[in-house]
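ZP: hey, is the zinc ion complex queued? I don't see it on the tracker
AM: it wasn't, my bad. submitting now with these inputs:
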Amino acid sequence: MTRTLTYLFIGFFILASCKDTSPETVSGTLINPEVKDTVLEVQPEPEPAYIIDTLEQKLIDAGLVNVQDSIPGILIDLRYSTTNNFMKQDVYGHLNRAYLQPDVAEDLKKCLEFLKGKDSSLTLLIFDAVRPRSVQQIMWDILDMPVNEKTKFVSNPKNGSVHNYGAAVDITLATNDGVPLDMGADYDDIRLIAYPRHEKAYLDSGMLSLEQLENRKLLRETMRAGGFSGIQTEWWHFNRYSRDVCKTRYTIVE
Ligand SMILES: [Zn+2]
């Protein structure tokens, strides 16, 4: 009898011991949020500090504004800061932000508001904004061709351009996730199909589709809403003011 009691006692002791390692306790330890956070949380690498180089500092010192600070939702693809351009050379280096005169940026904001009112799935995508004359000179010098040929690509830096004043943009329409709308010719395409002047002829020949033409028309309507006007030879280029008016309002960014 005493032995039976002893076995019962030992059995009870074993059961009681097993309870100490019950699933509840084990799982309680594993899913403890503090422990989990300690074990699994991976600290992200800190973003490297953005460096403003000499060129960008020059734009800031000239009183220009970073367009993306002024116009939330606008997109930038500074093509001259890549090799995806007609020169196949990066002439902007570190710079990948678009800068404009503050009042020009405010007017461009009106364009985007107009566009959003028409179609909220679309936005504006900037290829180029202010282009300092020193950069335009680099572009001019890269082109190894007669002067009358060069002017098809870049206006003569001697004359100054509306881009030099920070009052012109090269721009297109894009979806909010950055896909440019089809304009029937790429940015900086020097073929006549890029000329607004020849759109009707290209439409009639079937080389420009009605959809491509409608996209260009929507871009022009959008830009007019902020007071910008296009030119007859590049579907992407818009001036806020003429060169003569720019001379009275602003100083060339050298
Ligand atoms: Zn332009």
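AM: back. The chain has two domains: 2-40, 54-249.
ZP: great, adding it to the tracker
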